[in-house]
Write a structure and sequence with these properties.
α2 packs across α7 and α14 packs antiparallel against α15. Helix content is 36%, strand content 20%. It is globular and about 90 Å long. A hairpin with a 2-residue loop joins β12 and β13. The strands form three sheets. The chain has a nine-stranded mixed β-sheet with strand order 1-6-5-4-7-3-2-8-9. It contains 21 helices and 17 strands. The chain is of the alpha+beta class and 567 residues long.
Amino acid sequence: MFQVNVAPDMGMYSLLRSQGYDPAYALAEFIDNAIHAYQTQCSERIEKGDPLKVTLNFYSSDHRGATNLQNCIIIDDDGPGIAGAHLGEALKPAKHSGMSGLSEFGIGMKAAAVWFADTWSLLTCPVAESKKYEFTFDLSALLATGSDILDVIDSPDEITPKGTKLTLTGLRKAVDDEKYKEICAILKELYQRFTAGESPRMKLIARFNETPTDLQYMPPTDRLVLDSPMYKTVAKILYAIGPSQTWTVPVSTIFNGYKVEGFISLLVTGSYVTNPGIILFRNERVICGTTKQPYIPKRLIGTSNKFARQRVYGELHMDEMPVTYTKDKFEFNEDAFIDQLLSDQAISGLIRQAEAHRISKKEGEPIIVSTEAEIHSKSGTPGKPKPAATGGKSTTTSGGGTSGGTSAPSTSPSTTAATPAQPPVPDLVMLLTSLKEKTSSLMLRSFIAETIYQYQWRHEISAALGFRVVLELGVLFRIERDFAAEYPKVADKGIKAVITYLNANRTAFFDAKVDHRVIKSVQSITDGTQPDVILLNNIAHSHYQPSRAELNRFAINMEQLLLWAYS
């Protein structure tokens, strides 16, 4: 046994009882600590793809099991644990970790624990030691005796699983089934970047009276980005102006000296209920912007009851931006921040489109025009509207995107002739977006949109499989359309065999003067100097794990063949 000092001021703990936490955000403090420890101390596990596991066990006041479990919460993780030498630092409130990340302020665990209950205990088995450490923190007893010392029991242990377990006993506010479901819904969104995808970095599970709930985030399948012409109402008549475009604007700016990156887009289907608005991330954890508490500032859209409120969706990463210690909002001048975003003509144009893109009985279907100049000379009855949007889906992240976020496909919406330059988008997304605009096949457009979606959510294997389908079907469709006599010879072949056939019969498919780049690409694939098709086949058979860099290389190397296929 040894002792740790939890000073400097025990009275501070009394103040923490009444802090303005939401239960989900208070629990997030414990999860943040576990993730931070895993990220900084478990490099080998991370390299192996061994995810952190965090389990939240809730027990109601009327739980029929052991009485000592009634009205308590147990948070259990399989991370690196807390070394005995560091327990004193971990238990002092406001002891800064000295590192940026999810657990940098040094007050989260203590503040959240005391907010939930006066009495809590901790058991930790650090990976680097053959010991376990355990203690009980009883705030009422400490305050009554004026003590600031905790007794820590240390004992040899080779059996207890490594990690940390924290038990909150005698909750000030009991958690019932309804509150449990609300907490789970919020936590699922807060950690979407860590739990989503085929290879999540964290497995988050909750249990209520032993009944489990998997908190893995599943990206909404209906969160499609709007693909349509620019809409504008003039003299109470609705117009659809120019070609269809994908309504997503990449964001890359500096605000108050801190980097802000991500995107803002418009959704095909708007909703007051399911749209979280602009999701603000810090170190990949959601700070604000959930379906329960959407973040769509009125300064951005005017008023909350406008159509823009339903359609505007985005993800912004603000890793170094200051946040409140409860980590549920950023500490910045929101009006100034929104004004800076709206100073980008593409974003302000997107907001105008969000409000204008609707078809009401009053306005009727839009009249299609090529330019705004035509509006003043246009007469007659409204034409047919553009087909329903089939644009790609929103990002990421993810199961597990980068801290800076991923830009979605962009065609900058602007009402002016001069469109401001936008930050570059990933090669794969840029190529696929151009292909989607070239084809009228709803099947191909659907596959392309799904591939973009998987790439943006960092599902590399799924994105590679989608890319392979886009390549294979695109080539076969082109052969069927323009080389009907040759199609039966390749219709049942895989992409590698089809490309080999193209190379062996180049004169039947290509014009040497016009298609010389395509010919060169086909030749390099066939003779093995370009191994990308082989890799795509290996991925399809689960024999290879591609990286994002390789996916972008596929786009570069296959570009000429794909442009030929979709021309």
